[in-house]
Amino acid sequence: MQGCASTPLPSSSTTPPIALALDIASDETVEATYSLTKPVRALHFAQNLGGYREDLWRPEGSEFRWIREGDGERIERTDGQSFDRLTFDIPIDYRALPKNYAPFSPFSDRSTLIYSGHFQACTAVPCDGEEALPITISATGKTIGVSGHRTRDRAQFVSEGAGTNIFVGNLKPVAADGFVAIIDPGLPTALRQHLDRSLPQSIRYFSAIYGPLSFVPELYVSMDDRPEPNGGESTQGGTLPNQIFMHFDGAHARQRATEGSPLELDWFFAHEAAHLFQQNGIGKSPGDDAVAWIHEGGAEAMAALALASRGAAEREYVPQRVDHAATNCATGLAHMPLDRATTEGKFDLHYQCGLVFWLALDQSLREHGHDGLADLNRAFFAKVRAGEPWSQPVFMTTAKELGVPDAVLSRIETLTDGGYDDAAIEIAPLEILARRSLKLAEEQ
């Protein structure tokens, strides 16, 4: 496997205050032990994950308790005393989390992905959840894939930033067209064959526009069709630095994997491939979920244009999806501007509204002699790579510099920041531009 976002263990002069040992002694449980360089009264986590840790992370001994603190949480001793070591027993099981990746994505052969980001902690608040955490993983008889390497039984790396997925199991990676894949052996054959065609097609499309990726991305597709105790079923996909992953979970996982439209999978893989090219363009993962319409909507628009250029079925599917997005955007923004969507639990609005916004920007730029969305991406990537923040002001300034009319930019800003009377009326001209953008893509 190639290029995770992790780094080697630091030198002693830069050793972080917390280290973690993950011991995978069985296919069912991981023992997670935090060791601290100095005693502390609490271990802090930037996000409370909807109560996941409190529900399932069982501390060794009964003298610990979980306390919410803002958006995060801490664990402390009930007697208020300090500690320098804390061990949890954690079940290796999928858990659907609000606006977050699952901590574990089991495979049908009992291999698993472990998302390191949820283990990152700090010794004091404020805690941003991206602090460097040295991790040692022990899994006797298994292969551990992390930080671009595969080792048997034991591995070490540093998780930081958004974290990464750690693979633990005995499945072997397969070199594919433009990526390295570990695919669940339980995946239906037809879906596997479709995947083998779809993701390379997206990577080739974006490479022709933005240049080839500077790394070989990893793809993980996992499936756990064991029934969940609560009867839950879930399908989740996402992107971490240099990684794309997709997980089907619950009793009808195989059925759900095959009953959806192949075009939905094509869109998913194009969207996640777009994130890889965003990462490659700026040298890191794009951030700030308060303005997620920029990176999520941008990836949606890149996927739309990629599919619209392929064939008749795609040319019929993409406009329908854009119309649906515009309708959902208008409905959602009737209750709040987009800059409140994340805190109000309506994160999907960033995808739907962002798709329309970006395609409108694409068309506006094409009408002014530019290469549309591609030119805007390249200019914005360059600014972020040079040190400017991934932010709405920088993005909008970049669009204005390229020639997007003030009328279009002000309409987008009104929908994101507030000040409109009717969201449907406000978004209608942007939807018209988005439709024209797709027409041009179809003709190319």
Short note summarizing the structure:
With 444 residues, the chain is α+β, with helices and mostly antiparallel strands. Helices cover 39% and strands 25% of the residues.
Report on the architecture of this protein.
With 444 residues, this protein is an alpha+beta fold. The chain has helices at residues 52-56, 189-210, 253-259, 262-282, 292-308, 312-333, 348-367, 372-385, 392-402, 406-417, 423-443, and strands spanning 18-23, 29-40, 42-45, 58-59, 64-69, 72-77, 83-91, 104-106, 112-115, 133-146, 149-159, 165-169, 174-175, 180-183, 218-224, 234-240, 243-249. The strands form three sheets. Strands 1, 2, 4, 7, 8, 9, 10, 11 and 12 form a nine-stranded mixed β-sheet that branches. Strand 14 (180-183), helix 2 (189-210) and strand 15 form a beta-alpha-beta unit. Helix 2 runs parallel beside helix 4 (262-282), helix 5 packs antiparallel against helix 6 (312-333) and helix 8 packs across helix 9. The longest helix is centred in the middle third of the chain and has 22 residues, at 189-210. The chain starts with 17 loop residues before the first strand and ends with a helix. Residues 1-13 have low confidence and may be disordered.
Write the layout of secondary structure elements.
Elements: E1 18-23, E2 29-40, E3 42-45, H1 52-56, E4 58-59, E5 64-69, E6 72-77, E7 83-91, E8 104-106, E9 112-115, E10 133-146, E11 149-159, E12 165-169, E13 174-175, E14 180-183, H2 189-210, E15 218-224, E16 234-240, E17 243-249, H3 253-259, H4 262-282, H5 292-308, H6 312-333, H7 348-367, H8 372-385, H9 392-402, H10 406-417, H11 423-443
